[in-house]
Structures are given as structure tokens and as C-alpha cells.
Design the sequence.
């Protein structure tokens, strides 16, 4: 069984001093500072970063207390959600909220709580509910994943990381619900880690991930790339050769997708898979570069270029040369095999409108 940690899809800092997600970042780890000698002036944080750090220090104890207090209401998910909403409102930072709206246009309602504070809530709640039954935790997750605001939904993903190994079927049902209702890349990339853990625990879930390639929702299609990109970062099991054998055909089905949000996730996935089987990834990219040149396909070309910085210089130069003059253009139809297959079925229903089977 795969051990889990706290999902952290956030990394960069904006000029507003708000730590915000990095679209298509490699993995889900905070950005690391290079270990090089710097002057004291260079090490001094910017005023925005200093303000952000001070905000977190000031509110950290309150966040931990909120996480512990939530444990009292695990038997009443609606009450827990109300307590969480009131507590999150006291931890909100307007500067961070502005940064989130900047990097994720169209994101749904949210408080604007900084990631370290959400992590503190998550850790404190996990510690306080260590002996709580999986059924109760799933009921809490089912309530939070439907919350109007985004932060409770993100915290639900941490709960599903805990339950996916104990009750995989009901946890997966909630993961699918969250995927259907996702409306921005932050939600999708937060969901990627429980998806990755679920696939590693039960490899037959690859088939369920493949079905998303034909979804009319770009966010469900993005989840394929995000999950594949995350799997190599989930322990040694995520770097076995079988991962590349499952992943590369999935990415090939998506190559040519017209949505930039999907293209970014595909590029991220290829870069992550270099840790698993670099030769197979290079071969796949050469095949896609040949197709891109034959079809004058700017969608494929953009994804391939997005991987070049992580490839050996010689291979990167060859691929770059073969893509000369190919540019992505807005409004150009998708060329992916998944899009062609989906088109053959006609207009597919919006996945967000699918009825949810009862869980309890």
C-alpha cells in the first residue's frame, strides 16, 4: 500500500506576496532554493515575501487549533463544514486571494487562505482523527468535496489520500465526483495525488483514467496529464517501468488536444516520466514530432517544445529543428486521436451533470 503525505500543488510567489500554484510545475513540491553562495542582500526576502511569512507565523497557531477543533464534529459533517468555513474566514489573506484569482482565472469562490495554513489545518485534523473510522472520514470528505468554496474541497483531497487505501471504491467515487465538478487547474492538480495513489494501489484504475481522454471537459482531460505527472513522485512504486508503459499510450491519445490547460499537463507528464524511462519518452516525442511536422500541428509542437529543457541537448536540438515554423494558433481544432473518437460518438453530456450514485 502506498504511504501518503499532504498534497502541495503550490509553489511560486507573485508580486502581491501571495504564494500561488505553478501551472504544470514538476511534481507537487514547494520550489527549492539553489544551494549556492549568495550575498546577504540577495538572501533578504522581498517585502511581499516578508509580509507573507509574517502573516503565516501570526495565524499558524489559529490554523492548528481549527484543525483540532474539527475533529469534534466528524460525526456531523454539516456542522464540521460550518466550523471550517468560519475558521477559514479568520485566516483569509486578501493579497493571497488576489494572487489566486490572477493565476487561475475563473476559479470558484474561495477565502484566500495561504497553503501553509491549510497544511496546518490538515495536519492537526489528521493527528486528531488518527483513530477515526474510515466511514466517518469519507462522510466528511463527501460533504467537503461539494462545498461552495474551494479550500474545503482541497482539504477533502487530503482526506481521500488517507481513505483511498482503506476504502478504495467509495474514495474513488468521490474522486470522480471532484473531477467532474472541477472548474480550474488548481482543483485538478490537487486531485492528482489521490488519483495517483489509487492507481498505484489498484492498477486496473488505469482503464478508468483512460476514459477521461474522451471527456468534453478539459479539466477531466487535464487530470490524465496531472495524474501521470504526479505518479513518479509517489514513492518507488511510481518509478517502475510499467508506469511508462501505461502512461505513454495515454498521453499519445491526448497529443493534439486544442486546450492549453490540457497541453500544459501533457508536457508536465512527459517531463516527469523522464525519471521513469527516459529512452521511451524520447522515442515517444520523436514520433509525435514526426506527426506534428507531417500535419503542421501546432498543438503537438507546443507540448514537445515544453519538454525540451529536460531532454539531453542533442535530442532537444534535433526535435526543435524538426518543429521549425510550427506554432500553436487559437481556434485550431484538436487533432488528437481521443478527440476524433469522441467526435464519432456525437455530443457527449457534460460530466458535471451525471448523477452521483449513493455512497452511504
Sequence:
Amino acid at each position: 500500500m502506498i504511504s501518503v503525505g499532504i498534497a502541495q500543488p503550490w509553489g511560486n510567489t507573485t508580486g502581491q506576496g501571495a504564494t500561488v500554484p505553478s501551472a504544470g510545475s514538476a511534481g507537487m513540491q514547494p520550489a527549492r532554493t539553489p544551494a549556492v553562495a549568495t550575498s546577504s542582500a540577495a538572501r533578504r526576502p522581498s517585502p511581499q515575501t516578508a509580509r507573507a511569512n509574517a502573516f503565516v507565523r501570526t495565524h499558524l497557531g489559529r490554523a492548528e487549533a481549527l484543525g483540532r477543533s474539527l475533529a469534534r464534529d466528524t460525526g456531523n459533517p454539516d456542522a464540521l463544514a460550518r466550523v471550517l468555513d468560519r475558521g477559514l474566514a479568520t485566516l483569509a489573506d486578501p493579497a493571497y486571494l488576489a494572487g489566486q484569482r490572477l493565476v487561475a482565472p475563473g476559479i470558484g469562490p474561495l477565502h484566500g487562505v495561504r497553503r501553509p495554513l491549510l497544511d496546518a489545518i490538515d495536519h492537526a485534523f489528521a493527528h486528531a482523527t488518527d483513530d477515526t473510522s474510515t466511514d466517518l472520514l469519507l462522510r466528511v470528505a463527501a460533504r467537503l468535496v461539494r462545498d461552495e468554496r474551494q479550500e474545503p474541497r482541497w482539504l477533502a483531497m487530503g482526506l481521500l489520500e488517507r481513505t483511498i487505501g482503506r476504502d478504495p471504491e467509495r474514495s474513488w467515487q468521490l474522486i470522480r465526483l471532484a473531477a467532474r465538478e472541477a472548474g480550474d487547474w488548481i482543483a485538478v492538480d490537487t486531485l492528482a495525488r489521490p488519483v495517483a495513489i489509487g492507481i498505484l494501489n489498484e492498477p486496473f484504475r488505469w482503464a478508468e483514467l483512460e476514459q477521461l481522454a474522451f471527456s468534453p471537459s478539459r479539466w477531466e482531460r487535464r487530470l490524465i496529464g496531472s495524474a501521470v505527472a504526479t505518479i513518479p513522485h509517489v514513492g518507488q512504486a511510481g518509478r517502475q517501468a510499467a508506469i511508462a508503459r501505461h502512461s505513454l499510450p495515454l498521453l499519445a491519445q491526448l497529443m493534439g488536444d486544442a486546450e492549453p490547460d490540457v497541453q500544459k499537463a501533457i508536457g508536465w507528464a512527459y517531463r516527469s516520466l523522464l525519471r521513469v524511462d527516459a529512452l521511451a519518452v524520447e522515442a515517444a516525442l520523436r514520433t509525435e514530432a514526426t506527426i506534428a511536422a507531417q500535419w503542421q500541428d501546432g498543438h503537438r509542437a507546443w507540448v514537445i517544445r515544453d519538454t525540451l529543457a529536460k531532454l539531453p541537448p542533442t535530442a532537444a536540438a534535433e526535435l526543435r529543428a524538426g518543429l521549425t515554423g510550427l506554432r500553436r494558433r487559437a481556434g485550431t481544432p484538436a487533432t488528437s486521436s481521443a478527440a476524433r473518437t469522441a467526435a464519432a460518438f456525437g455530443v457527449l453530456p457534460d460530466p458535471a451533470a451525471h448523477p452521483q450514485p449513493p455512497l452511504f
User: Anything to note?
Assistant: The beta strands are 10-13, 19-21. The longest helix spans residues 47-70. The longest strand covers residues 10-13.
